[in-house]
């Protein structure tokens, strides 16, 4: 084959050309074939063979083809970039070429994210697509990673400005061209290398933005312990950089593909846990441990979370602030914010701010401004909210991880809770202003708005912090802790040990603690508010664990029970999630508490109100079964007490009278067993199984277990399906044994919440599963032989 002719004016395509290049070019000296160039490039990109880069074409051919296809000269620029980026280059000319390419792509990215597709539709192939197709993405990756190459023992260096240009172009290409981000995510060495670029403040923001996008599509979670000098890297971040870095951490410390935790079946979870035990800690757990080993990491997060708006960088220039905004919000919101600033400046300060056309944008696609002016307060507040959102999320995940106790101890020591309490009114639960910034395409009440997301993340953090941990009393101030002590003293009961052990120097200050502030906004929340669910969950977590009379009375005195009943009965709440959270909270608030039942009876003071309440309970037992369980347990305790006050409540309370009837208990028991199956058990509905067990355990105490089983058998026959319920219950109990006998936390929770020893739970299940058909307390005794189906291997389904 004859040698290829030299590329006109380039001198870079030396040697022999591949057959694919010859075919695409129509043979040596032939004319370009307009239909197959891009197709072959795409095939080469997918297979790694054949045509994959602009360097494989003569410049004359690219120039001629560009006249027809309007490629904006991008392939020719990539050809020059390849020439000027060799190992011994000083990269000056390389950077000049990137300056030519950058605006071609940033304009397109800006148009893409602002949903103004006119610019991208004017050409058949967008600039970012052409840039990627002719090998631009791979070439920039190689340029960026040049510092990893050593020549004669010395590492190559490239300037921060060059790195910044490369990163901005890569980001814009990822935004506009499908598949680029995923391809970058597959280059694990490149992803790890990107972290090292965050050591420079000049390249930090572009690097963080690109890493976040890449990790969002990466199939396998990156391991932070593989990042060189991670501890030094993070320790050298200023507070602003650390806040940005939390966006990346949010992806690296959360378990991948878990979906909605409550919706995953327990069978699947148990199988995954067994697999995890054999594989060791997950990448997310390793990453959490790596972060916690960094000196001062949690302390700095706590400072960021509790920093007041006035403490943030108030003297930063407008352009610097805008550059930070770019990493947090899409370009559309940046534009919206800019216009808002322009309006505020012109209306209030009579200052003129000029915004040039998008075509004059610098790198990152951000418009210039002729004035170096201060940001309005509304934007500063929103900026701080965006920071805190990510920081609170990271703290919340760490609180739920393996090192929970260590994180709890540090969060308490660094006064996160009193700090959040001081921010509650002015930032976290501040009143909306008419000019409050929201995400592009959304409104202030949308669940996606930063204001609302911050509130929800704050409530999730409180829930994780309070749940089954003695540090929950840090949510109170000194006066409120004294009130708890006074409640115990008046009731002549021992003071809660955790209250006595609480370090008073770490609690909330001011007139009200965080829990009291939460109760105040909870009672003012509109009926349709999306916060009701999270508020109820946060308050309920304060009551979880061993029942505390003082804790209950503290909340009862603040009108919580009446508020819950108003929402359930008078507002006739329709949201299933909110109803479930309110029923769960009501159950914890009333359990074993005579005063709570008196208050209930005082509020539900007519048959009409009581019927509405029962209708809400019976509309979904999955949602209300925890309340049914708590009332059943309370009834059992009250019946065994000799006290005039208790006797009065037993005789007057409609709810206790209703639950005490055997037909009522049997109705609940039948439905609770019928609505769940082993294959559909989740963390959300497994409570139905445990509530049914509570009813039967209390029947066993009264030696009435055979009666209840016989009644269940009769109810089966009345439905014309003999055996279907008891077979299902048998399978459920077999699963219960597998699930709970190997999980200490769950068994402890069952024992603490019911005040029934876990040994009694296990004994009752064993008695029910007794294979002896002569046993009056065994399920098999009530399943007729033809309908027996108790040996199903549900673990394989």
TrEMBL record:
GO terms for biological process: hair follicle maturation; protein ubiquitination; ubiquitin-dependent protein catabolic process via the C-end degron rule pathway. One of its GO terms (molecular function) is phosphatase binding. GO terms for cellular component: Cul4A-RING E3 ubiquitin ligase complex; cytosol. It holds the Pfam family DUF3689. InterPro entries: ARM-type_fold, TRPC4AP. This is Transient receptor potential cation channel subfamily C member 4 associated protein.
């Amino acid at each position: 084959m004859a040698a290829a002719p030299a590329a006109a004016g380039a001198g870079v395509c030396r040697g022999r050309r591949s057959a694919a290049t010859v075919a695409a070019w129509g043979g040596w000296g032939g004319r370009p074939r307009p239909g197959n160039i891009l197709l072959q490039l795409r095939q080469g990109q997918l297979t790694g063979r054949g045509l994959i880069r602009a360097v494989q074409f003569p410049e004359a051919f690219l120039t001629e083809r560009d006249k027809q296809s309007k490629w904006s000269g991008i392939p020719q620029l990539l050809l020059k970039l390849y020439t000027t980026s060799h190992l011994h280059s000083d990269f000056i000319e390389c950077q000049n070429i990137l300056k030519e390419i950058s605006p071609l792509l940033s304009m397109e990215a800006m148009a893409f994210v602002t949903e103004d597709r006119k610019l991208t539709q004017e050409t058949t192939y967008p600039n970012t697509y052409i840039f990627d197709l002719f090998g631009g993405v791979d070439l920039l990756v190689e340029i960026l990673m040049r510092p990893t190459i050593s020549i004669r023992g010395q590492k190559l260096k490239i300037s921060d400005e060059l790195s910044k240009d490369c990163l901005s172009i890569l980001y814009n290409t990822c935004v506009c061209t499908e598949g680029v981000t995923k391809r970058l995510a597959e280059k694990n060495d490149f992803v790890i290398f990107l972290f090292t670029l965050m050591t420079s403040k000049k390249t930090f923001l572009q690097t963080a933005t690109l890493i976040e996008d890449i990790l969002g599509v990466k199939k396998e979670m990156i391991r932070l312990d593989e990042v060189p000098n991670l501890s030094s890297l993070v320790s050298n971040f200023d507070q602003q950089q650390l806040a940005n870095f939390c966006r990346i951490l949010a992806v690296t410390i959360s378990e991948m593909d878990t979906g909605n935790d409550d919706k995953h079946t327990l069978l699947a979870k148990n199988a995954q846990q067994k697999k995890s035990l054999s594989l060791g800690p997950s990448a997310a757990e390793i990453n959490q441990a790596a972060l916690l080993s960094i000196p001062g990491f949690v302390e700095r997060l706590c400072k960021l979370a509790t920093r007041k708006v006035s403490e943030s960088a108030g003297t930063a220039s407008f352009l610097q602030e805008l550059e930070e905004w770019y990493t947090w919000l899409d370009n559309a919101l940046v534009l919206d914010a800019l216009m808002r600033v322009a309006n505020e400046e012109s209306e209030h300060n009579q200052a003129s701010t000029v915004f040039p056309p998008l075509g004059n944008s610098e790198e990152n696609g951000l418009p210039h401004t002729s004035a170096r002016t201060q940001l309005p307060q509304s934007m500063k507040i929103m900026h701080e909210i965006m920071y805190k959102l990510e920081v609170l999320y990271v703290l919340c995940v760490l609180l739920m991880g393996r090192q929970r106790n260590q994180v709890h101890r540090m969060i308490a020591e660094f006064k996160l809770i009193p700090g959040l309490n001081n921010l509650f009114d002015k930032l976290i639960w501040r009143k909306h202003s008419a000019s409050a910034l929201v995400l592009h395409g959304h409104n202030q009440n949308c669940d996606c708005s930063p204001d609302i997301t911050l509130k929800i993340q704050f409530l999730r953090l409180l829930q994780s912090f309070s749940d089954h941990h003695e540090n929950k009393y840090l949510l109170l101030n000194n006066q409120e802790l004294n009130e708890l002590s006074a409640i115990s003293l008046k009731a002549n009961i021992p003071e809660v040990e955790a209250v006595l052990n609480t370090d008073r120097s770490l609690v909330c200050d001011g007139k009200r603690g965080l829990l009291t502030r939460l109760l105040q906004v909870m009672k003012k929340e509109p009926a349709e508010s999306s916060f009701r669910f999270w508020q109820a969950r946060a308050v309920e977590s304060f009551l979880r664990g061993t029942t505390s009379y003082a804790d209950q009375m503290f909340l009862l005195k603040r009108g919580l029970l009446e508020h819950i009943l108003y929402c359930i009965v008078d507002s006739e709440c329709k949201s299933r999630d909110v109803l479930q959270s309110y029923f769960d909270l009501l159950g914890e608030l009333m359990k074993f508490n005579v005063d709570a039942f008196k208050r209930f009876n005082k509020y539900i003071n007519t048959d009409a109100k009581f019927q509405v309440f029962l209708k809400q309970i019976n509309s979904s037992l999955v949602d209300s079964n925890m309340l049914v369980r708590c009332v059943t347990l309370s009834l059992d305790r009250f019946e065994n007490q000799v006290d005039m006050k208790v006797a009065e409540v037993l005789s007057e309370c409609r709810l206790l009278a209703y639950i005490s009837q055997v037909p009522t208990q049997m109705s609940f028991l039948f439905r609770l067993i019928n609505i769940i199956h082993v294959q559909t058990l989740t963390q959300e509905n497994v409570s139905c199984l445990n509530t049914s067990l509570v009813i039967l355990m209390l029947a066993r105490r009264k030696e009435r277990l055979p009666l209840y089983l016989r009644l269940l058998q009769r109810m089966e026959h009345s439905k014309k399906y003999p055996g279907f319920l008891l077979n299902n219950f048998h399978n459920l109990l077999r699963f219960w044994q597998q699930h709970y006998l190997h999980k200490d936390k769950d068994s402890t929770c069952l024992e603490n919440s019911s005040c029934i020893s876990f040994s009694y739970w296990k004994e009752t299940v064993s008695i029910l599963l007794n294979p002896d058909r002569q046993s009056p307390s065994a399920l098999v005794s009530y399943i007729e032989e033809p309908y027996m189906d108790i040996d199903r291997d549900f673990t394989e389904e």
